[in-house]
Specification:
This protein is mostly helical. It folds into three domains: 363 residues, no CATH class; 47 residues; 126 residues, STAS domain (Transcription Regulator spoIIAA, 2-Layer Sandwich), CATH 3.30.750.24. It has 24 helices and six strands. Helix 3 packs antiparallel against helix 13.
């Protein structure tokens, strides 16, 4: 009974049972650090979304507190993110702020229902080409919205669609402000240098404080939060029920589903990152309920949609966070800023925030995935290209819908290709002898796992069975693929990730017996780079011989002792 109750309790409640002063000190340092990092990001996301900067800060305070207090991840940080910028910009331009608040609350309700009904794992049904396509597209769109402020262009209005926006920027590029350009490019350079050479130093904090100090001291003639928005109000966010518009509910349902699915995908991706860095395992259903509650609460304070923020979560873990208390402190840090330091924020230059957002766009773009996608089948490449193109030239909702339809057709095609009817011959029987396990001895230094059936998007999370108890794993893991009838891009990515996890834990991975379709796609994707060509075997007999060679030459260290 206790385990059943624990399955629905927030991580904060579970971890506070063993809380102490040492953990609080670590959480305090991490919370203040990530709170300062979140300040410029929250304002930048709000401005890019077409709303006032305080909307981003209020969102970060309210949702950051609720997601950490009620969520299912140990070190997840919630708040406004780049994924929502394009969607929010479109909703605000079409339906206004009240439409955005209605949409956000509706998305929050959808997330609560998803979590409460156990659909926390639903996001696994988004195939890799679709996810990469719309993250590439979102990154391009975010970058395009920041060109005006990066170069200090004098433009009254920034068009909502990509091509008109780029046309307007080209027409007005002669209004370039050289001071703003230097501040923006310097900010971008600082972010890049910190990311490459000083990873423990948050570049966003340096840029925000440095550029603000430069504007205040040298009175630089560039646009700031104060000149465009009049600064941000000091004091507590006001609780007020937004003017909901029931007549718009049907029109807002589609964007609300997009916001909910984006929130679910990014929050659970971020929770996975948190798990890898902190050695924990999140509860996806509890996490989605917390995300839903946070999104229903955010509009009550004039805030934006929110989700788990991967970069801030990583910063939180690197700063030493031990429990969700760090996320709560991050929210309180932002609250302290608007209570006691709001007047200073007016000097933050928009060019510096543009530099920060360009770095965010680059980091969220999944650019390294593009060469991997291009190695896959023509169907997978088509899904990626179409999703990316529609995200940029149309809208994200349409892009995801079309991408998923194409992926579903591809899924059906791959499944149909796995069905065969053939006569059993003497050659077939003889060939099968090297694949059977019944007459083979599995040594103690190796473990054999089999994948049975299609290994396509939607089922790839089952591979975590291999790493469920890492300390009990022998030094060599063999994946028997004889009964894996098909694989896709998401399946390839899951096997690659498994190989990297096993290698990081001092273990070797071998695969054997792949059938024609999986073998061909794995070869095209360059899977051998992750485990070595010599560790891809034709059958279990060869794999066991290869395992013996590895064991004798002591290439892989002995398993860890718990």
């Amino acid at each position: 009974m206790s385990a059943a109750i624990d399955a629905w309790l927030p991580k904060s409640v579970l971890l506070l049972r063993e809380y102490n002063s040492e953990k609080f000190t670590a959480d305090l340092i991490a919370g203040v650090t990530v709170g300062l990092v979140a300040l410029p990001l929250a304002m930048a996301f709000a401005i890019a979304s077409g709303v006032s900067p305080q909307a981003g800060i209020y969102c970060a305070i309210v949702t950051g507190f609720l997601i950490s207090a009620l969520g299912g991840s140990k070190t997840q940080i919630g708040g406004p993110t780049g994924a929502f910028v394009v969607v929010v910009l479109g909703i605000v331009s079409k339906y206004g702020l009240d439409g955005l608040f209605t949409c956000t609350m509706l998305a929050g309700l959808i997330l609560v229902i998803m979590g409460a009904t156990g659909l926390g794992s639903m996001v696994k049904y988004f195939p890799r080409p679709v996810v990469v396509g719309f993250t590439n597209g979102i990154a391009i769109l975010i970058a395009s919205t920041q060109i005006r402020d990066l170069f200090g262009l004098r433009m009254e209005h920034l068009p909502g669609d990509f091509f008109h926006r780029m046309g307007a920027i080209t027409e007005n590029f002669h209004t370039l402000n050289w001071v703003a350009t230097l501040v923006g490019l310097a900010s971008l350079a600082v972010m890049i240098i910190c990311a490459k050479f000083f990873k423990r130093i948050p570049g966003a904090i340096l840029v925000c404080f440095g550029a603000t100090a430069a504007v205040a001291i040298f009175h630089l003639p560039i646009e700031t939060i104060g000149t465009r928005f009049g600064g941000i109000p000091s004091g507590l966010p006001h609780l007020a029920m937004p003017r909901l518009q029931p007549q718009l509910l049907l029109h807002l349902l589609s964007p609300a589903i997009t916001v909910a699915m984006l929130g679910a995908i990014e929050s659970l991706f971020s929770a996975v990152v948190s798990d890898r860095m902190s050695g924990d395992k999140h509860n996806p259903n509890v996490e989605l309920i917390a995300q839903g509650v946070a999104n229903m609460a955010s509009p009550l304070f004039g805030g934006l949609p929110a989700t788990g923020a991967i970069a801030r979560t990583a910063t939180n873990v690197r700063a030493g966070a031990r429990t969700p208390v760090a996320g709560v402190i991050h929210a309180l840090t932002l609250l302290a800023v608007i209570l006691f330091a709001a007047p200073l924020v007016k000097n933050v230059p928009l060019a510096a925030l543009a530099g920060i957002l360009l770095m965010v766009a680059y980091n969220m773009g999944d650019w390294k995935e593009i060469p991997e996608i291009l190695k896959l089948s023509a169907a997978d490449i088509s899904v990626w290209v179409l999703t990316l193109t529609l995200t940029v030239v149309a809208d994200l909702t349409l892009a995801v819908e079309v991408g998923m339809i194409l992926a579903a057709f591809s899924f059906i095609r791959k499944i149909s290709m796995t069905t065969t009817v053939s006569k059993v011959t003497d050659d077939y029987i003889e060939d099968g002898r090297s694949h059977i396990l019944q007459d083979k001895d599995i040594p103690e230094y190796a473990a054999v796992y089999r994948i049975h059936g299609p290994f396509l998007f939607g089922v790839t999370d089952k591979i975590t069975e291999v790493t469920e108890d890492m300390t009990a794993l022998p030094p060599i893991v063999i994946l028997r693929l004889r009964n894996m009838t098909a694989i896709d891009a998401t399946g390839i990515a899951a096997l690659e990730e498994l190989a990297e996890i096993l290698r990081a834990n001092g273990r070797a991975m071998l695969v054997c017996g792949a059938r024609p379709q999986p073998e061909a796609l794995m070869r095209e994707a360059g899977f051998e780079r992750h485990i070595g060509k010599e560790n891809i075997c034709a059958n279990i007999e060869e794999a066991l011989k290869r395992a013996e060679q590895i064991h004798k030459t002591a290439i892989v260290p002995a398993p860890e002792v718990s």
